[in-house]
Amino acid sequence: MIKYHSLSAIVRSIILVGSIIATGSFLTLLTQSPDNTILQIITFLLIFVSLYLIFNFKDLKIYNKIFIGLALGIIAGLVFGEQIQIFQPVGKAFIKLIKMIVIPLVFASLLVGTASMNNIKKLGKIGVRTFAFYILSTALAITIGLIIANTIKPGSSIPAEIQTELRQDYEQEAGDNISRATDRPSTIDLLLNIIPENPAQSMADGKMLQIIFFAIISGIAVTYLPEDKRKIILTFFEGITDITIHMVHMIMKLAPYGVFALVASVIGEYGTTIILTLLTYFITTLLALAVHVFFFNSVVIKFFTDLKVSEFWRGIYPALLVAFSTSSSSATIPVSIECAEENLKAKPEVASFVLPLGATVNMDGTAIFQGVSAVFIATVYGMDLTLVDQLTIIFTATLASIGTAGAPQVGIIMLTLVLQSIGIPLEGIALILGVERFLDMARTTVNVTSDLSCTSLISYRLDRGNRL
Fold it and tell me: Are 280 and 152 in contact (CB under 8 A)?
């Protein structure tokens, strides 16, 4: 007799195969009639049913499902092209759901973490050491990027006709990014803007540094309240934190579908043509990112914490998948905090302080991207960068990373600042916009990895008698 579970698996397998075949057929029809709304709805439903059956075929852990969604998204994008973008709203909805809880989680957890220390001197030590770690790691990252870029010299083999085509294809988008960068405030104004005039407006606008500043000041103020009042306030905000964590668990059940939609849409829109055209630049950037993320963070974990390197990488695996698929350090904060506290055993007050700050200040991957891109664009335009030029790149990119939102595509805006500082034509960013979305995924993963290694370091030093 066939067991119920075996029969269920057979039935689901048949439905799955049928759904995949039907989906391919309807996508083919949709290619011929792209404006047919009924075909779009049927195709969307078939894709959803197929994904549901795949993700629930066996008892898979959620982050293995995410990885499967990532792989299927790449395949779907390559096979079906732009037609797969009918699933794009699911990816956008997933990102919005995550961003929905970032502000309350960051504010509540940071306020509780600050107030729970009961020691302003300890908070000062954590803040100074964290900020120093982020500045040094960013400067080191862009130095690595420049060294590798100068060694490989990406851009030297691109034919002139392809350069012209790239400029024409992305001229409008390049102009939009240039105009946004020229409106960026000065360094002094940027520092002053950390202080919010209206905290409620800052939360509405998602200005992370202002929110962090207000949360820290509020947490410090709470420490001066009488014990009974302090306990009420901390209990309330601890409840807010618990609610948002439960919301994270609920939203992450949709992550495999969101990741599939996001990756499939990117692959479907751009394909592999533009990547092949800029292959040397693409590989150079990925190589620099890989060298920094694996070497630097592994050294920090091995020699400055009590974690094993393998434990660290296994522990942050969920956060890295979310970072890669969303291209947003800020959107990854809830998952990063959970990984830090549960898998890396970081102290909650450290994780709630270091990770939100890192999502805004720490941009190792973005700094590498800027260094390689500056060398690439300069090479295409026939410019030789002097040692002074490259030192200027390091200084400008490090400062530019402070206060930059941890959201997709902000690296392009920061890059225009770097190019301006050394006189490289800003229009050159049009050369890299075709592969920028792919590199955005990779550099965000590097950013989040560095945030988590800093969290492990600070938490370990705090456990060792406050020897920060």
Answer: yes
Task: Provide DSSP, 225-243.
Answer: S-HHHHHHHHHHHHHHHHH
| Residue that is written with structure tokens 């902000």 in the block | 410
Domain carrying residue 23: 1-59
Weakly modelled stretches of the chain, pLDDT under 70: 1-44, 46, 48-50, 52-55, 57-59, 63, 116-123, 157-187, 190, 208-209, 270-277, 399-414, 417, 426-428, 430-431, 433-435, 463-468
Would you state the structure tokens that stand for residue 391, as one six-digit string?
A: 């030192």
pLDDT of residue 147: 92
The DSSP H or E segment spanning 440 is helix 433-463
Q: What is the pTM of this model?
A: 0.66
The per-residue pLDDT for 173 is 52
Give the integer Cα–Cα distance in Å for 145 and 157.
19
Place of tokens 């070497």: 295
Q: Do 370 and 418 form a contact (C-beta atoms < 8 A)? A: yes
Whether 329 is covered by a domain: the verdict is: yes
Please give the Cα distance from 345 to 307 (Å, whole number): 9
Other CB atoms within a 10 A radius of the CB of residue 356 amount to 29
One-letter amino acid of 157: S
Domain presence at residue 86: no
